[in-house]
Amino acid sequence: MKRISVFCGSSYGRRDSYRAAAEAMGRLIAERGLGLVYGGGDVGLMGALADAALDAGGEVVGVIPEALADLELAHAGLTDLRIVDTMHARKAHIIEISDAFVALPGGIGTLEELAEVWTLAQLGYHGKPCAILNVDGYYDQLVAFLDHAVDHRFLGAEHRTMVIVETEPRTLLERMERYQSPTAPKWVDRR
Question: What distance in Å separates the CA atoms of residue 40 and residue 38, rounded to the nearest whole number?
Fold first, then answer.
């Protein structure tokens, strides 16, 4: 892995632990000599993540749509800020230049980004690790839903393993470095 994409909230959320986890993840990525790729904002967890990586001497690549950059949400101090036309172009570029993907606490945009990269992995478009940093149980209900989807045969057990879930950034990165993408077909029931 050379670059890790992190999806997270443009707000700080209710708990201080969310910000602490974003800062810890940013620092750890930089300390390991990896590049950080993220949505390019300077607000909320996104800004805290980027600032921590920059403070630790890391490369930080931000990818932001022009409409959001125009609202003065773009981080001005990044190693590399890339302005694209649309949200779709943002995600496509992030997927292209990243070797792994992590979701920290966030809202519907974070969930959508995780779902897209995981779906692409499930369909075999890439074999890059996808992960969730489950800070203070933030994603417990999502993890329970994923297990429920396996139980009801809408998600194969092999594909459930494609999303690494951990509570500590260091353990998460170690598991991502050892990740081997399963080769099972996407379809649970195929005639």
Answer: 6
CATH number of the domain where residue 120 is located: 3.40.50.450
Sequence-separated (6 or more) residues with CB below 8 Å from residue 102:
4, 5, 6, 7, 25, 130, 131, 132, 133, 172, 176
Residue ranges making up the domain that contains 58: 3-177
List, in order, residues 6 or more apart from 163 with CB less than 8 Å away.
114, 118, 130, 131, 132, 146
Q: Residue 63 in contact with residue 84, Cβ under 8 Å? A: yes
Residue 15: inside a domain, yes or no?
yes
Question: Cβ-count burial of 88 within 10 angstroms (0-12 exposed, 13-18 middle, 19+ buried)?
Answer: exposed
Find tokens 């980027």 and name the residue: 50
pLDDT category, 100, cuts 50, 70, 90?
A: very high
Report the pLDDT value the prediction gives residue 125, as an integer from 0 to 100.
Answer: 93
